[in-house]
């Protein structure tokens, strides 16, 4: 019998590819037209910063 962790991991991986295709390299329309606008407004210039993108979906914001 699979442990709870193995069950969660299996479900996560099962849906990851579909989610990745939906979000794509530039995010979905909700992110592009809504949340990303505010994210970039409040985070500011990140050119000289080190940012950890961990556990944030497919990482479409990762440079």
TrEMBL record:
It comes from the Eukaryota. This is Uncharacterized protein. It comes from Rotaria magnacalcarata.
């Amino acid at each position: 019998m699979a442990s709870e962790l193995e069950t969660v991991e299996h479900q996560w991986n099962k849906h990851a590819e579909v989610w990745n295709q939906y979000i794509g390299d530039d995010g979905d329309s909700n992110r592009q037209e809504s949340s990303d606008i505010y994210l970039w407004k409040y985070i500011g210039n990140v050119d000289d910063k080190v940012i950890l993108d961990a556990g944030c979906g497919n990482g479409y914001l990762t440079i």
